[in-house]
Design goal:
By secondary structure, this protein is α/β, with parallel strands linked by helices. The chain has twelve helices and ten strands. The strands form two sheets. The protein has an eight-stranded parallel beta sheet with strand order 6-5-4-3-2-1-8-7. Strands 9-10 form a two-stranded antiparallel ribbon.
């Protein structure tokens, strides 16, 4: 069996690219995103899905070594089985599945992936499964989905899709995003409670030219516990990479906190004041996380 498990590290940006535009796939790989998602769902009309599958398979093989996913069609569609059978190939880092709503959906997709991995002599359970939560039922069931364990165990990373979620609720998607506070919070808490990686936030689609609004939305998602954001245009990648990376000031502050606390702890004290701030173990752990994240980003 060929090993195919990818250690993604921090995912600040995940850039979508249409599967039926091979020229754009090549450009997307060089756009600076942490991962690239070749889209076989919304970007490809039903009549062209079958002919697009081998194009995607060839591009995955061509860019072997890059962190490339394919978004297949969702559970219950007529396309998902053929999508997975076609695109699972050596060099694929993971599969994104939309409209996940239950642990049963997760198990069904896992079994399809196992069969494709076996057929291609790939490590069973090696492909990471990226799931999109984008309906009221999916949001309601998210903890059950992410706490389900497959055999063999497969890594799961969650993404949020606000366009389909607001459509499902009959809600209006706004620039300020109050309508998304609850689903974002529920998804982020569920991922943490299940001890899996933090989720990826929905794409910003209100105005692709308004990078200030994109940055504001990315900061709201970061504040709620998301590790990164889905992107639908290369221009969004630098903004989101910056938002979801520690700033030099944050890194310097974190170093001062850790150093001062270590010195105080060695002297027998477990809480101190530093530059007017009260510092105890939770504050130190947060500082240590900032330093670990900065180190991981520097290595990628």
């Amino acid at each position: 069996m060929k090993p195919n498990r990818v250690d993604f590290g921090p995912i600040r940006t995940a850039l979508f690219v249409p599967g039926n535009r091979p020229d754009r796939i090549d450009k997307a790989v060089g756009a600076g995103a942490d991962i690239v998602i070749i889209d076989l769902e919304d970007a490809v009309p039903p009549a062209r899905k079958a002919e697009t599958r081998p194009v995607i398979r060839d591009k995955v093989s061509q860019h072997k070594g890059s962190s490339i996913l394919v978004r297949v069609n969702g559970p219950g569609t007529a396309f998902i089985q053929g999508d997975i059978e076609a695109v699972v190939v050596e060099g694929l880092a993971g599969v994104m599945v939309p409209k996940m709503e239950s642990p049963e959906d997760l198990e069904q997709v896992h079994r399809m992936l196992l069969a494709a991995e076996e057929k291609n002599r790939l490590q069973p359970g090696g492909l990471t499964l990226f799931i999109l939560i984008e309906s009221a039922r999916g949001v309601q069931n998210v903890f059950g989905i992410v706490s389900a364990r497959t055999r063999p165990e497969r890594s799961v990373i969650v993404s949020f899709g606000a366009a389909d979620y607001t459509l499902d609720l009959g809600a209006e998607m706004t620039r300020t995003g109050e309508e998304l506070i609850y689903p974002r919070s529920r998804i982020a808490v569920a991922c943490r409670a299940a001890r899996i990686a933090p989720p990826l936030d929905t794409p910003f689609m209100m105005d692709l030219n308004d990078l200030a609004a994109l940055e504001a939305e990315a900061r709201r998602a970061k504040q709620l516990g998301f590790q990164g954001k889905l992107c639908i245009h290369p221009s969004q990648v630098p903004v989101c990479n910056r938002v979801f990376s520690p700033t030099p000031e944050e890194i310097d502050s974190a170093r001062r906190v850790v150093r001062a606390f270590e010195e105080a702890e060695a002297a027998g004290t477990a809480s101190i004041q530093l530059e007017g701030r009260f510092i105890d173990y939770p504050i130190v752990e947060r500082a240590a996380r900032i330093l670990r994240l900065a180190d991981l980003i520097e290595k990628t």
